[in-house]
Specification:
The protein has 4 helices and 7 strands. The chain has helices spanning about 10-20, 40-50, 85-90, 95; strands spanning about 1-5, 25-30, 65, 70-75, 105-110, 120-130, 135-140. The chain has a 7-stranded mixed sheet. It binds adenosine-5'-diphosphate and magnesium ion. Magnesium ion binds near residues 38 and 57.
Length: about 140
């Protein structure tokens, strides 16, 4: 599925609609350049899932988590991770959380750990089309 949004709000709305349908166990892998709208989309996703706190990018701390009655929402940003990614991911304990029914994982720069992600991972690609235009492509693997 492919969408074109013309404002940050439209991207958030798209995320919000998807967020309202989460049940736990989902893994979302987000790809796209800086400023392409990944975090903006996740803000909507979180809102739709029922998170009332403001979601800010976890770029410098790699991961933030938000507890909800049905699952914990994990927002991961791998942009700043360097060196031995496998080791870093192990330190984060990411492998144990991914795909569990009690968690929803949303990962920015997920292509960096592609081989660690389960088959059911839903890939979402973001492209900056200039000014406020963004293309958002949902892919479901397999
Ligand atoms: P990323 O996480 O991919 O680096 P962000 O969501 O942090 O991107 O930043 C996107 C930036 O682009 C924000 O400043 C946002 O306000 C702006 N923007 C403009 N138009 C859009 C749009 N259609 N969708 C998403 N963000 C947009
Ligand atoms: Mg971001």
């Amino acid at each position: 599925m492919e969408f074109i949004t013309k404002s940050a709000n439209q991207t958030q709305d798209l995320g919000q609609r998807l967020g309202a349908s989460l049940i736990g166990g989902e893994v979302f892998a987000l790809e796209g350049d800086l400023g392409s709208g990944k975090t903006t989309f996740i803000q909507g996703l979180a809102k739709g899932a029922g998170i009332t706190q403001r979601v800010i990018s976890p770029t410098f701390i790699v991961m933030r988590q938000y507890s909800l009655p049905k699952f914990t929402f994990y927002h991961v940003d791998l942009y700043r991770l360097e060196g031995d990614l496998n080791k870093e991911i192990e330190n984060l304990g990411l492998k144990n959380m991914i795909g569990g029914n009690n968690s929803v994982m949303v990962i920015e720069w997920a292509e960096r750990i592609k081989e660690l992600l389960p088959r059911q991972t839903k890939w979402i690609k973001f492209e900056n089309l200039g000014e406020d235009k963004r293309k958002i492509i949902y892919e479901t693997q397999n």
